[in-house]
Structures are given as C-alpha cells and as structure tokens.
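Protein record
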Amino acid sequence: MPPCKELSTDLKDTIIRHFEKGNSYSNVSTTFGVPRSIVQRVVACWKALRSNVNVPQKGWPRKLQGHAAAKVGIMAKVSPAATRETIREDLAAVGVCVSKSIVMQALNNIGLAVHCPRQVPLKSRGHLMARIKFAWAHIDDFLAQWDGVLASDETEIELFGHNTKKTMWGKMGEAFKP
C-alpha cells in the first residue's frame, strides 16, 4: 500500500478489474496489500458512480482550522453576548466560510455553552435602604408635588419588540461575571 492516504487511479482500476473477474474482497486485499475495508470502499464507489475518481465533498467544510477555531473562542470570550451569526459573519470577513452549526461545534469543543445569566431581583438590601432613604427625604413634601409623578409597580411591559432572555457564552457551571 502506498504511504499516502489516497490510492492511485491505476491501483483502483486494477482492484476493480480483479473484483469484476470474480475475486472476493479478501483475495483482492491480500493480492495488493490493501486493507479489506479500502477494497470495499473502492468497489462501492465504482458501483455507485461508475468512476474511480475522488468526488469533492458537498456542502460547507466540516471543520475549522486551528487558527479559525482559536479566533471563534476569542470572539466568544471577548463578547459573551455575541450570537453564532455575528461570529460567522466576522469569520466570513476574514475569509473563512462556515455555517452556524460549525461555529456552535467549535464553541462546544472549547468548552463554552449557551446559558442565560441569572436574574437578580431588584429588591436587594441596598435597594431597600435606598428606597427608605428616599421616602424619609420626601416625607414632608406636599401632595401637589406628587401629582406629576407616575407610580409604578416595577412591572416591565414592552410594547414593541420581543421581551426575550439574553443568552451568553460561558463555561458550564460558571456564574456570569459582568
């Protein structure tokens, strides 16, 4: 067997000729010193395409090269709120064309996953003390001064757009650090 990964077209042709003569996969593999699985692959390609040339891969490239995968990790760590689409567009500007699923795979290989940051309630001890301080500061105000103030129960209502959760890239089990 040749030292490179690809078999020469002459060797593929002779493997196909011997198989068409009626020799089994194991006889052909021992004759040419090629593993049986490779003989099966060559014959299967011949049966499907009637050709022994290598067909280029369809679709997007499957993997990122080392520098591009490192760039994906750096982008996600610098701006954890970046989406897969923005990371893909940044890579396309550099000249690396990948799909969003490849970006997701690269981030998962690095150890980053999408998670929602914890929602901290607004009523912490500091907020409570600030409210009490404000109330004591304005206890003697006239009622007429409060006529122009709109009271709120702190309910956020978004009239236009989506009221969605924000997702961030981060290590699993790690709290969000602003």
User: Anything to note?
Assistant: The beta strands are 112-115, 168-171. Residues 9-49 form one domain. Helices lie at 9-20, 25-32, 36-49, 66-78, 84-94, 100-110, 125-137. The longest strand covers residues 112-115.
